[in-house]
Amino acid sequence: MNDNRTGDRASAAASTVSPFRSGPSARDEAPQFVLPLVARIEKSAPPARTDALETAARAVLTILADERSAGEGEWARAMRDWQDARIRKVVRRARGAEWRRAEALPGITVAGKSAEVRVFPPVPLDGWPKDLARLQVSGTDLDDPEPPPPADPAAPVLWLNPGLGMSAGKAMAQAGHAAQLAWWELTDEDRTAWRDAGFPLSVRPAAPSGWTALTAGGLPLVRDAGFTEIAPGSSTVVADHPSLR
Question: Which residues face 45 on adjacent strands?
Fold first, then answer.
């Protein structure tokens, strides 16, 4: 669990100048860090797209809630520095020996139904460990062999903008952003309940007819900074957590 000071500061920042907005802010003056996520994508058995997105979102929540990220924990300083600047996440892919080398580095592996995502403590933008820096970041795309079932309305849903075409890697990062915004907005009690339940959530494209209402409903909304793939300021994901409705 994050310590209260970090959580309170992040919540206040999210409610004023979002770390995902494209416009300049004081966050740009701080040293910039990135949260690395590595998806295991074997040629013979790639994960389903939706499962990969959901697993990435849960990986972000898992490191936010980890005791090593709080107080005087070994990752706490890096987590605080990262959250004081732009909240950047980069998803890379690995298989075989690449994945085994990634798993040997400090981090947390989160498994879904078919997906595995390892999340690492934040690193400087130009300070990636060599075994992660060599991994490919572009071209990560996946498919759903079967349409995912309808989202459970009693559990958190991360609604994707239906008008944006994003690669799987980009969408994984955006889902992670949305999960983090929801985490910041929750009370400590709600955070604990979500963590203890194993961070249940769904990631689904919103209905085109309902997207505008979702973005205007007061729920956490990610506006992308436009570093890759999509235009700066694009609304990408709405975090619909039952406790925030």
Answer: 42
Bridge-based pairing of strands 157-160 and 202-205 is parallel
Cα distance from N-terminal residue to C-terminal residue, the chain? 23
The full length of the chain comes to 245
CA atoms within 13 A on the CB side of 160: 23
- Strands of 80-199, DSSP E: 88-94, 108-111, 116-119, 123-124, 157-160
Q: pLDDT, tens digit, for every residue of 132-171?
A: 999 998 666 799 999 999 999 899 999 999 999 889 999 9
Phi, psi of 219 (to 5 degrees): -85, 155
pTM, 2 dp: 0.88
Helices and strands (DSSP H and E) totals, the chain? 8, 9
Which residue reads 């989160």 in tokens? 110
Tell how far CA 221 is from the center of its chain. Answer: 13
Alpha carbon distance 69, 5 (integer Å):
12
